[in-house]
Design goal:
The protein is mainly alpha-helical and about 500 residues long. It has 20 helices and 11 strands. Bound molecules: glutamic acid (GLU).
């Protein structure tokens, strides 16, 4: 156990087998909070020993999305540190050295069953009594036999010789969790390609990187017993463990990236699962952090809105819960709406630009002044995607405007083309307007309402459909000023041509 005088060192250890899952972001956040609160060190370690599952650009995306969230690391890729390298694929010599130590001490041994033989053993076990536990060979193969088999080209792994005793993990969230000796088998610590398994590399690295606290998802709880056994065998200290609740969808299923494939197959829009999905969908990092902080942690009072600084103040590992966390998308959306209203304008602007850039939207070319005006004109928006829906038409060519047939029918063609007729009259007036700014435009629309003795919507909506193609846009005066007179008139004329067509 680390003593209180030791500096707190925590780690986040993603595998570059995909983008950053929202659950991974929560793991990073909680570790980050532990580190920041204690004035400790946040280590980022890349667990990249599984060559087969490596996904090309995932590392850069993980780093980039972590930075976007504001979760920085003190040691790791691009930061350096005294305990590197921080990529497991660059630490093979270190693992080999400790592997040899276990082999020499008889605490690990070469095992030579082929995958087919193991399958057969599993089949037999299934028929006989159900569960399969790898039966330790007696006598154990010698090191020489293992090396000979390797030279013969056979698939040789290294297995850890588990002690014949119960193992207890002292979990700071869940309490003591004991597994009995008969629940363990001699698990693999080195694969036949010579790479260590996750268990082995993780234990060696946690020790050599002087990790004091391991905070990770409950799906790893049963791994921790193996890790404790390896720590004992290697003479390493055991860090403080804490296993956090797993994140579930509201329907009780586990929130996984397979949800996306399932939705696509069912012809539905894929749900956001990875941080990058949320970023692309126009969520704010502030809202995401605030929301995921509450997935499994609370102070017990009513406060729900937290900045990262406030979270750092309020956070404690003791208040992480035991029960599953539910991912309520409606709640996240409302958090995002609140954060969009609360964030200082320069920061909101920066976030909007990031959204525009990663989606490669035409608003990328807009000036800061214009973007600020758009943010103000759309105040109350839920996500940047909603904002984009409202203002995207400002940035496309007039010829590219597509009129939503439903909107045309409802707003323009209904009641014997009443909307078209009003639009026609509006065009004449707008054409004659010289001061093309918000308030004269609004006055013009109001005057028209009065003279026609009709509601604002009956005049404004036809214009809106004509200039935007749909029924949503900022207030009409603002919309037309932003679009400009020429474009407004061109679009209205284009829309009026539909009159003939309907
Ligand atoms: N690479 C592992 C994962 O992504 C790390 C697990 C751990 O924190 O030990 O699940």
């Amino acid at each position: 156990m680390p003593t209180s005088s030791e500096i707190v060192r925590v780690r986040f250890a993603p595998s570059p087998t995909g983008y950053l899952h929202i659950g991974g972001a929560r793991t990073m956040l909680f570790n980050w909070l532990v580190a920041r609160k204690a004035g400790g060190c946040m280590v980022l370690r890349i667990e990249d020993t599984d060559q087969a599952r490596h996904v090309e650009d995932s590392l850069q995306k993980i780093l980039d999305d972590l930075r976007w969230l504001g979760l920085t690391w003190d040691e790791g890729p691009e930061a350096g540190g005294d305990y590197g390298p921080y990529f497991q694929s660059q630490r093979l010599d270190i693992y080999n050295q400790y592997m040899q130590q276990l082999l020499d001490a008889g605490q690990a041994y070469y095992a030579m069953e082929s995958p087919q033989e193991l399958d057969r053993m599993r089949e037999i076990a299934k028929k006989e009594q159900g569960g399969f536990r790898y039966p330790r060979p007696d006598p154990l193969p010698t090191i020489e036999q293992g090396q000979l088999a390797m030279r013969e080209g056979r698939k040789v792994v290294v297995r850890c010789k588990m002690p014949d005793e119960d193992i207890t993990v002292h979990d700071s969230i869940l309490g003591d969790v004991t597994l009995t000796a008969d629940q363990f088998e001699d698990f693999i610590i080195q694969k036949s390609d010579g790479f260590p398994t996750y268990h082995f590399a993780c234990v060696v690295d946690d020790a050599l990187m002087k990790i004091t606290h391991v905070l990770r998802g409950q799906e790893h709880l049963m791994n921790s017993h193996k890790h404790v056994a390896l720590q004992h065998a290697l003479g390493f200290p055991t860090p403080i463990y804490g296993h956090m609740p797993v994140i579930f969808n509201l329907d009780g299923s586990k929130m996984s990236k397979r949800d996306k494939e399932k939705a696509i197959k069912a012809g539905l829009a894929p749900p956001e699962i990875e941080v990058h999905d949320f970023r692309t969908a126009g969520f704010l990092p502030e809202a995401i952090l605030n929301f995921i902080a509450l997935l499994g942690w609370s102070t017990g009072d009513d406060q729900e809105a937290y900045t990262l600084d406030e979270l750092t103040q309020a956070f404690s590992m003791e208040r992480i819960g035991k029960t599953n966390a539910k991912f309520d998308r409606a709640k996240l959306l409302s958090f995002n709406t609140d954060w969009a209203a609360r964030l200082p304008e320069p920061l909101l602007l920066e976030r909007l630009k990031d959204y525009a850039t990663i989606n490669n939207l035409p608003i990328c070319s807009a000036t800061d002044d214009l973007l600020l005006r758009l943010l103000q004109a759309c105040a109350g928006f839920r996500t940047f995607a909603d904002l984009q829906k409202k203002i995207g038409f400002l940035f496309i060519e007039d010829e590219a405007i597509e009129f939503d047939p439903k909107a045309v029918k409802k707003v323009l063609a209904k009641n014997d083309n009443a909307g078209f007729s009003i639009l026609n009259q509006t065009l004449t007036k707008l054409d004659a307007l010289e001061d093309w700014t918000k308030s004269p435009i609004e006055d013009l629309v109001n005057d028209l309402c009065e003279s026609l003795d009709t509601k604002m919507g009956n005049v404004a909506q036809p214009i809106r459909v004509a200039v935007s193609g749909s029924t949503v846009s900022p207030p009409i005066g603002e919309t037309l000023e932003l679009l400009g007179k020429d474009k407004t008139l061109i679009r209205i004329r284009k829309c009026l041509k539909l009159h003939v067509a309907v």
